[in-house]
Amino acid sequence: MPTLTSPLVTLAAEAGHSELPIHPYLIGAITLAVLLALVIALVAFGGGREHS
User: Fold this and answer.
1) Angle at CA 51, nearest 5°, toward 38 and 39?
2) CA distance linking residue 3 with residue 22, whole number of Å
3) DSSP run (H or E) holding 34
4) Higher confidence at residue 22 or residue 5?
5) What is the model's pTM?
6) What Rg do the C-alpha atoms of the chain give, in angstroms?
């Protein structure tokens, strides 16, 4: 039985690793844009208020 499962485990391990369909730098750029938009919205929302 070990002779049969060893190639199957190797094939399963190789099949599990693949390239991402989206480049990691694109994911980072989108994340940065969303976070910057949230910071800008936060500053715009609290822009005219006094500190307590």
Assistant:
1) 10
2) 38
3) helix 24-45
4) 22
5) 0.55
6) 24
